[in-house]
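Private note to self, pasted from the team thread so I don't lose it. Backbone tokens:
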């Protein structure tokens, strides 16, 4: 299975990364069906699986027994143990990332552009002004921006929060602190 991560805000090189999971796909047997239906209902409230009684069935519940996980994105590539991926806690920002990035872009564009002053000489050219800044990614650890220099060259900049955020309240505080650093 390949999962493609696309930036929710229009930017150059919009594909942020790809994850690949390889393994065996097996049908969930009748004796396991109730457990997997409960798991599905917990993860996707309001989307209860409705099995078709047609022959052949319209769809079936399957399980991917993962042997290999790899990630390749704009910032690097690597592999992960399937057990580590399964045990990982979801990022508390992930569920809201798309709408938060779109909100930052449309409602706080000036503040986001103001973060460019925190880059200093990191643009690679002391004389190259940053002409455009777009929010690219947001997670519990920080904000990543796609910047375009005056010469048209695009680069990414990461702004880490002082500590990982646990919820949207902490995220709001972290963002205010980041914006304050750019204006103060």
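Design output:
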């Amino acid at each position: 299975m390949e999962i493609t991560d696309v930036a929710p805000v229009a930017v150059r090189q919009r594909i942020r990364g790809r994850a690949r999971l390889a393994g065996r796909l097996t049908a969930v047997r009748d004796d396991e069906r109730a457990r997997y239906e409960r798991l599905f209902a917990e993860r996707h409230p309001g989307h209860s699986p409705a099995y078709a009684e047609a022959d052949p069935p319209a769809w079936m519940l399957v399980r991917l027994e993962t042997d290999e996980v790899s990630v390749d994105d704009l910032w690097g590539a690597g592999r992960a143990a399937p057990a580590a991926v399964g045990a990982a806690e979801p990022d508390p920002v992930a569920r809201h990332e798309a709408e938060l990035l779109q909100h930052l872009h449309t409602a706080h564009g000036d503040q986001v552009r103001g973060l460019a002053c925190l880059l200093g000489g990191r643009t690679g050219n002391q004389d190259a002004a940053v002409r455009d800044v777009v929010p690219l990614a947001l997670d519990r650890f920080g904000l990543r921006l796609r910047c375009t220099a005056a010469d048209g060259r695009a680069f990414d900049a990461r702004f880490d929060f002082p500590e990982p955020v646990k919820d949207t309240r902490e995220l709001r505080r972290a963002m205010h602190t980041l914006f304050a650093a750019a204006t103060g």
